[in-house]
Automatic annotation (TrEMBL):
Domain STAS intervals: 15-111
UniProt organism field: Streptomyces galbus
Superkingdom of this protein's organism: Bacteria
Signal peptide annotation: none
Identification of the protein by name: STAS domain-containing protein
InterPro entries the record matches: MlaB-like_STAS, STAS_dom, STAS_dom_sf
C-alpha cells in the first residue's frame, strides 16, 4: 500500500512498497485515486524502497500523472534506484514524472 508520510494542503508525500507489480498495483491505484479525489494536487512518491516496478506500476504512475496534469498538479517520484531511473529514461518518462532536478542516468553503454 501507499504509506502517506506527509500531507500539507494539496501536497501529499507517500512511500511506495517494495513491489509495485500486478499483485499490489490495484490497491495502490485505489489509494492514489482516492487521494486525488480528496484534493491532492501534488503527489510525491518515495520510491527508495522499490525493488520491482512492472508495467502495471508504470501504468499507475502515468494514470496519476494524467489525472493531475489538467488540475495544474504534479507527480514527482523520488529515491529511484539507478536501474529504475534508467527504465524511466528508456520509456521517455523521466523528465515527466520524476524529480526534475535529479540527475538523468541512462542505461549502461548510453542510450
Amino acid at each position: 500500500m501507499l504509506h502517506v508520510t506527509d500531507r500539507a494542503g494539496d501536497h501529499v508525500t507517500a512511500r511506495l512498497p517494495e513491489d509495485v507489480d500486478l499483485d499490489t498495483t490495484p490497491g495502490l491505484r485505489a489509494v492514489g485515486d482516492r487521494m486525488i479525489d480528496e484534493g491532492c494536487r501534488h503527489l510525491t512518491l518515495d520510491a527508495s524502497g522499490v525493488v520491482t516496478l512492472d508495467s502495471t506500476g508504470i501504468t499507475a504512475l502515468i494514470a496519476w500523472y494524467q489525472r493531475l496534469l489538467p488540475l495544474d498538479g504534479s507527480l514527482t517520484v523520488t529515491g529511484l534506484s539507478d536501474h529504475l531511473s534508467a527504465l524511466l529514461v528508456r520509456l521517455g518518462l523521466h523528465g515527466v514524472i520524476t524529480e526534475p532536478d535529479a540527475p538523468v542516468t541512462g542505461p549502461p553503454g548510453g542510450v
